[in-house]
């Protein structure tokens, strides 16, 4: 969709001019000429439209007061707010600052470093988890195949009755399916978290490169709880992952009569 210059469109009678830039501080799309004027009159950072990442959500304005920019940050609540919100909701808070003050040296701040570290942690942990789970999916397939053969050969030795053999094989099939769907769920959870992480990483990279500390600060501040949720979920998935095994246990006294039992066991992955 072609965007038209916000500034030129505001002048009646002027024909629509194609916008080439977007101001990251106002959110406006502007043509080359207006971009030059806008930059001369402000310290705003604008970016060529072609360079804007997808899923860009600028988070400039207050969700309660649509005309007001999120220019303040309450340190007590650790959240961005507009001037009105500051007066209404944070009047008793000890520290509310203009983000121009807080955003200074944003790239060297603890928030910035924490954000980068959490992104890296998620990305590595999710890659590792997926490798482990995929390996487990293969080993479950092997376990299952091996047990099927064992049951089959027991049948040849007439240690397993025909009807019981069918039951065992049904049971094996069901347990294999259960294991596989548990593992598939881990994979799809990991992929969902991976998509979140990649999206935030792309935006973080973009905001880091635009050069505006304020724009970067707003981005970090407004998405860090999102990232921290993904971080916690990633840790839980990674740390709680239990490798699954299917066993076929033949009890001595059962060999001649019926055969054995099929069991699933779980083991925390050694790390
Ligand atoms: Zn224009
Ligand atoms: Zn602007
Ligand atoms: Zn507000
Ligand atoms: Zn507050």
UniProtKB/TrEMBL annotation:
Domain B box-type: 3-49
Alphabetical keyword list: Metal-binding, Zinc, Zinc-finger
Highest taxon in the source lineage: Eukaryota
GO terms assigned for molecular function: zinc ion binding
PANTHER family: BONUS, ISOFORM C-RELATED, MEIOTIC P26, ISOFORM F
UniProt name for this protein: B box-type domain-containing protein
Lineage start: Eukaryota, Metazoa, Spiralia, Lophotrochozoa, Mollusca
């Amino acid at each position: 969709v072609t965007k038209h210059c916000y500034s030129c469109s505001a002048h009646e009678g002027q024909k629509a001019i194609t916008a080439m830039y977007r101001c990251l501080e106002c959110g406006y799309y502007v043509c080359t000429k207006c971009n030059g004027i806008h930059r001369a009159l402000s310290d705003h950072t604008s970016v060529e439209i072609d360079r804007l990442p997808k899923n860009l959500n600028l988070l400039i304005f207050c969700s309660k007061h649509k005309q007001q920019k999120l220019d303040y940050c309450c340190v007590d609540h650790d959240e961005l707010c507009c001037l009105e919100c500051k007066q209404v909701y944070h009047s008793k808070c000890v520290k509310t600052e203009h983000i121009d003050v807080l955003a200074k040296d944003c790239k060297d701040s603890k928030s910035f470093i924490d954000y980068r570290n959490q992104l890296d942690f998620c990305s590595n942990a999710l890659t590792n988890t997926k490798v482990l789970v995929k390996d487990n999916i293969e080993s479950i397939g092997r376990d299952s195949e091996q047990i099927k053969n064992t049951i089959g050969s027991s049948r040849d030795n007439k240690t397993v009755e025909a009807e019981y053999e069918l039951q065992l094989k049904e049971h094996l099939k069901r347990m294999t399916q259960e294991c596989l769907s548990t593992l598939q769920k881990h994979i799809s959870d990991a992929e969902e978290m991976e998509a979140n992480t990649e999206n935030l990483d792309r935006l973080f990279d973009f905001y880091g490169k635009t050069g505006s500390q304020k724009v970067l600060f707003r981005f970090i501040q407004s998405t860090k709880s999102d990232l921290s949720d993904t971080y916690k979920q990633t840790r839980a998935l990674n740390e709680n992952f239990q490798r699954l095994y299917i066993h076929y246990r033949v009890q001595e006294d059962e060999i001649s009569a019926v055969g054995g039992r099929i069991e699933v066991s779980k083991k925390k992955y050694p790390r």
